[in-house]
Amino acid sequence: MKRAFETDFAVKAGATLSPLAGVLVIAGVVIGLWGASPIVSALADGMVAPLLSTIIGTAVFMVESMISHALTRRREASVRSRFEQHLAPAVVRRILERPASPKRKSEQREVTALFTDLEGFTAMTHRADPAILVATLDSYFEGMANIIVAHGGTIDKIVGDGLHALFNAPYDLENHPGRAIECAIALRSWAEFFRCRPEVATIGFGRTRIGIETGLAIVGDVGVHAKLDYTAHGDAVNVAARLERANKGLGSSICIGPVAASRWNQFLLRPLGKVTIRGHDDPMAVFEPLEFRCADAAATKLSCHHWSAPTLVSSPDFDRAIQ
């Protein structure tokens, strides 16, 4: 009974402590059992001597297995901690099922990039109390991140007041342009509700502006093992970032590039005109999702139970240079 208790304690310690501490604790128990073997043998008048080596060998094998299991659990916890704030739960489970390497190999794949930004953020930082501003941003980003993950997106990074997300990375996501656009609509609805909260409105929290585009990109981990950053590089990513900025001149809240727009329901898009993007010779047509007026202003889901019939609103084409 005592040995069973000691072994159970050692296993639990190995699973909860650091790998080195766990190994030392379990090794201590094994050494203790080994040291007690002569006493046990003497008390039993040598009757257990023939079986002693087998018993000890079996105990050592079991302890080694327990150490291995504890290390595996710790590695899984580390991977889960890294990804659970960025990926949908189903994607995290798939990564844990294939833990080939802590650094994900770079690959070229089609992605839909989504960038967000807050209108008037710099001015807000000058008039808001720092503690209140940080607490407000924490709540804002938590709500935005939950919506992105719920739509199957991957949160790449948060920089200042902006958020960058990827769809169709690191794993395949069916209809990722549509999922990103639907996510943007949900983000817009939630952000408008959030900024109307009394405690948020007092600091002049601005509108959320979003840019979206689809295209090929190189995705994977960049950096060293101590600081890995899963990110994407490609023209579509750059375009999405610049389309987010284009909202300011267009007077829109969501600006969708031509490739992403072509993969969604055209009857639910409003043409915004054409913009010239740095690195592209020809102006590109951009669009915005039609706004559905929900009876419940706090709606954060995609479905609206009461909304006015959508009408397509055309606007003349115009050329704007996005620097």
- Please mark out the parts with pLDDT under 50 across 5 or more consecutive residues, or reply none: 1-17, 293-323
Number of helices: 10
Please tell me what the overall shape is: elongated
Question: Looking at CATH, which topology of the largest domain would you report?
Answer: Alpha-Beta Plaits
Corresponding CATH superfamily of the largest domain: Nucleotide cyclase, GGDEF domain
Number of strands: 9
Helix content: 40-55%
Largest sheet properties: 6 strands, mixed
CATH architecture of the largest domain: 2-Layer Sandwich
What's the order of the H and E elements?
HHHHEHHEEHHEEHEHEEE
End-to-end separation: 74 Å
* Count of domains: 2
What structural class do helix, strand and pairing data support? alpha+beta
Rg, nearest Å: 28 Å
CATH class of the largest domain: Alpha Beta
Average pLDDT reading: 75
In terms of DSSP E residues, the strand content is 15-25%
Outline of this structure?
The chain contains ten helices and nine strands. It is an alpha+beta fold.
Explain what the structure shows.
Strands 1, 2, 3, 4, 5 and 6 form a 6-stranded mixed β-sheet that branches. Strands 8-7-9 form a 3-stranded mixed β-sheet. It is 49% helix and 21% strand. Mean pLDDT is 75; it is low at 1-17 and 293-323. The protein contains 10 helices and 9 strands. It has 2 domains: 2-83; 103-322, 2-Layer Sandwich (Alpha-Beta Plaits), CATH 3.30.70.1230. By secondary structure, it is an alpha+beta fold. The N and C termini lie far apart (74 Å). The longest helix is centred in the first third of the chain and has 35 residues, at 49-83.
